[in-house]
Design a protein that fits this description.
By secondary structure, the protein is α+β, with helices and mostly antiparallel strands. It is built from eight helices and four strands. Helix 1 crosses helix 8, helix 4 packs across helix 5 and helix 4 crosses helix 6. The longest helix is centred in the middle third of the chain and has 33 residues.
C-alpha cells in the first residue's frame, strides 16, 4: 500500500546529458512520478564529455557526441522555459535511445525540434551561438559539481537545486505507478540523510530498458 502523499511539493532538479541511456530511463521514471505526486521537475544540464574529456581542449569537449544537443537544450530552455527543454529532451531521447539516431546530426536535431513543437530555426541559432550556449551548459554542470560533487548522470538535487543531491537512482525498467511513487519517496528519504553517501550493487548484465 502506497503511503499518503507529502503535504508540500518536492522540487527536484534533474541533471542530464542526453547521451546517457541510464539518465534517460531515470527521467522517464521521474516524469511518471510527477504525474502521480506533487513533484516539480526542473531539467538541468551536465556534460559527460567535461567529466571524461581529460586533456581534451574546450573545442573537443564542445564537439563531443552530445555537445550540439546540449547547446540546443540550453537554447530551448532559454527561449521557452522548462516546458520547452522537457519536450525537447523527450524528443531527443526517443531519437537516440529509441531509434539509435546521432545527437550530432542535423536531421535528428531538426526532427526533435519539430516533434517538441519548437522553432526549427533554433538549430541554426544554437550553432551560431555555440560558445555562449556552452557557457550555460557549463554553468549547470558546475552547479551540480559544487552542490553535491556530481560526477555523472542522472544526478538529482532536491529543493530546486538548493538541497541535498546524489547520483542516481539507476533503474531498469521503469517501475509501475505504485512502485515508482514508493521508490521516489525512498530516494528523497535517503537524500535527506546527510550521513548516507553511497548505496550500490552490481548491475551484472542488466542494460537500460528505454521504454517506460
Amino acid at each position: 500500500m502506497t503511503p499518503p502523499a507529502p503535504a508540500a511539493a518536492e522540487r527536484v532538479r534533474f541533471h542530464l546529458d542526453p547521451l546517457c541511456p541510464w539518465a534517460w530511463v531515470t527521467s522517464r521514471w521521474l516524469i511518471r512520478v510527477a504525474a502521480l505526486e506533487p513533484v516539480e521537475v526542473e531539467w538541468a544540464l551536465f556534460s559527460l564529455a567535461e567529466i571524461n574529456g581529460g586533456d581534451a581542449d574546450v573545442a573537443a569537449r564542445q564537439g563531443a557526441a552530445s555537445g550540439r544537443a546540449l547547446r540546443l537544450l540550453a537554447l530551448a530552455r532559454e527561449s521557452g522555459g522548462q516546458s520547452a527543454i522537457g519536450r525537447l529532451y523527450t524528443a531527443l531521447g526517443e531519437a537516440r535511445h529509441g531509434r539509435g539516431a546521432s545527437l550530432a546530426a542535423d536531421e535528428t536535431l531538426g526532427a526533435a525540434l519539430r516533434e517538441a513543437e519548437l522553432d526549427p530555426a533554433l538549430l541554426a541559432q544554437a550553432d551560431g551561438e555555440a560558445d555562449r550556449l556552452w557557457a550555460l551548459v557549463l554553468a549547470d554542470h558546475a552547479a551540480a559539481v559544487e552542490r553535491c560533487g556530481a560526477f555523472g548522470v542522472p544526478t538529482l538535487i532536491l529543493d530546486g537545486g538548493a538541497g541535498p543531491g546524489m547520483f542516481g537512482p539507476i533503474v531498469s525498467p521503469v517501475p509501475d505507478d505504485a512502485e515508482s511513487v514508493s521508490l521516489f519517496r525512498d530516494v528523497v528519504s535517503c537524500l535527506r540523510r546527510p550521513y548516507l553517501f553511497e548505496l550500490k550493487r552490481d548491475r551484472g548484465g542488466t542494460r537500460p530498458v528505454v521504454s517506460a
